[in-house]
């Protein structure tokens, strides 16, 4: 009897300890050891959030829902706004904006519309491990949407970049569902910049706001030099390992889902998570905006921390009443504005070297952090992770799994082209260009199946 009572006490104490740790875990803990971000690297984020908000407007000359201070955009520089009627359910609405002030070509993609069935179709078009791409796994539906956009707008983007002296940056930015599309679009463009007039990787960047978990860990780390994710405090989406399609099936009972996921992940070892090659993560370098503290009421002046985490990459669910509100683009825009103003004040107080020297030094620091993250991914045996030296070598597919993944990748590319060919405004030249990309790496055998062209892949 005494043994049974003792066992019950141990179980009760263990449960109480678990409840205490989960209930006292806050979003601030995820980035407690990260270094602060600098003003220069965080500066684009608030204005890009405004650009995302502008996608929701039908007419930028007469905006109906402007944020505080307005959109700060020149309506005459808006090249194209594509609504649901034009995307035909293949991708979320987006805006192409030519920012002459900052010398940027911006493609802004809106987030999930809970009232649109087409957005759900993009979201639901996925299963764990369904789509292999570039040596890792990605969300199948988001990849198809990215390829559709590229087939439709590649000629427009190429023309804008060439006409502006081949010096403008090309920035892809999206919120929630759009962040996943923007991230995968960036990966494709970064690898095939020659198809957009020869734009170098250094002029390509992506900002995933309230990012969706859309790619495997090796890809998330590999492209941390061009993809930047922005997370506001307790946002649920980057922390929820449950597939996106399951999250939004239960969106009206989200607290129940978060609790169950929290309970499940408690008993899943960290090593098992890292070795699951199909598990998807938020992409790239992380920027965490922190504005609340434990057992404190109200919002504090926000701090911004940044890192390229490999283990502990927003893996813990935060049981917070702000988990959904922190996902809203309007709140992210407001808090990022405050954070930028705070960073500007801190920079002005601590500046001891000329700004150009600071930028160069910071760039070297970011490159070192990226290299260390790649090395740590290899050390932790993350599936498909390769050291930075191997990234510079020619692309050679040696494993059967990689070949199968490449075939799936090309199949989705072709499917995207077929979808794009049915839409209006799509040029024949763009289709030809992307067919050439496919033919470089793959050929068809006698049965008509796609097979790896090893000679072409070895010379790429």
From TrEMBL:
Annotated Gene3D superfamilies: alpha/beta hydrolase (3.40.50.1820)
GO biological process per UniProt: lipid catabolic process
One Pfam family per UniProt: Lipase_3
Residue stretches making up the Mono-/di-acylglycerol lipase N-terminal domain: 7-72
Keywords, alphabetical: Hydrolase
Domain spans labelled Fungal lipase-type: 106-242
GO molecular-function terms, A-Z: hydrolase activity
Keyword Hydrolase listed: yes
InterPro entries on file: AB_hydrolase_fold, Fungal_lipase-type, Mono/diacylglycerol_lipase_N
CDD domains on file: Lipase_3
Protein name (record): Uncharacterized protein
Naturally occurring in which organism (per UniProt): Anisodus acutangulus
């Amino acid at each position: 009897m005494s043994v049974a009572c003792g066992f019950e006490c141990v179980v009760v104490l263990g449960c109480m300890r678990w409840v205490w740790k989960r209930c006292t875990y806050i979003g601030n803990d995820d980035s407690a050891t990260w270094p602060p971000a600098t003003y220069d690297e965080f500066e684009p984020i608030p204005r890009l959030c405004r650009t995302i908000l502008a996608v929701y407007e039908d007419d930028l000359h007469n905006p109906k829902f402007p944020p505080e201070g307005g959109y700060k955009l020149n309506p005459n520089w808006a090249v194209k706004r594509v609504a649901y009627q034009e995307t035909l359910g293949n991708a979320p609405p987006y805006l192409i904006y030519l920012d002459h002030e900052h010398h940027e070509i911006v493609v802004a993609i809106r987030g999930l519309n809970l009232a649109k069935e087409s957005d759900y179709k993009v979201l639901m078009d996925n299963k764990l491990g369904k789509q292999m791409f570039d040596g890792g796994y990605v969300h199948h539906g988001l990849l198809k949407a990215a390829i559709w956009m590229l087939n439709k707008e590649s000629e427009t983007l190429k023309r804008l970049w060439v006409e502006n002296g081949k010096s403008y940056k090309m920035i892809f930015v999206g919120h929630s569902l759009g962040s996943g599309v923007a991230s995968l679009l960036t990966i494709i463009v970064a690898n095939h910049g020659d198809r957009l007039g020869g734009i170098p990787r250094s002029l390509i960047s992506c900002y995933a706001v309230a990012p969706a978990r859309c790619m495997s860990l090796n890809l998330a780390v590999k492209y941390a030099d061009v993809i930047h994710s922005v997370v506001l405090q307790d946002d649920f989406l980057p922390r929820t390992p449950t597939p996106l399609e399951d999250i939004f099936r239960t969106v009206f009972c989200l607290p129940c889902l978060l609790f169950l996921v929290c309970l499940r992940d408690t008993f899943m070892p960290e090593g098992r998570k890292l070795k699951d090659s199909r598990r998807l993560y938020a992409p790239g370098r992380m920027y965490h905006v922190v504005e609340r503290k434990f057992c404190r009421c109200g919002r504090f002046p926000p701090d911004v921390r940044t890192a390229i985490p490999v283990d502990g990459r927003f893996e813990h669910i935060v049981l917070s009443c702000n988990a959904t509100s922190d996902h809203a683009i309007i709140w992210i825009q407001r808090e990022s504005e405050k954070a930028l103003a705070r960073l500007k004040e801190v920079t002005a107080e601590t500046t001891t070297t000329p700004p150009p020297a600071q930028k160069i030094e910071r760039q070297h620091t970011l490159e070192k952090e990226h290299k260390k993250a790649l090395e740590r991914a290899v050390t932790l045996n993350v599936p498909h992770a390769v050291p930075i030296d191997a990234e510079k070598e020619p692309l050679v597919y040696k494993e059967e799994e990689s070949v199968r993944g490449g075939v799936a990748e090309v199949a989705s590319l072709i499917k995207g082209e077929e979808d794009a060919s049915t839409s209006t405004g799509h040029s024949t030249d763009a289709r030809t260009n992307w067919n050439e990309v496919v033919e470089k790496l793959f050929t068809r055998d006698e049965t008509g199946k796609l097979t790896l062209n090893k000679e072409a892949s070895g010379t790429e």
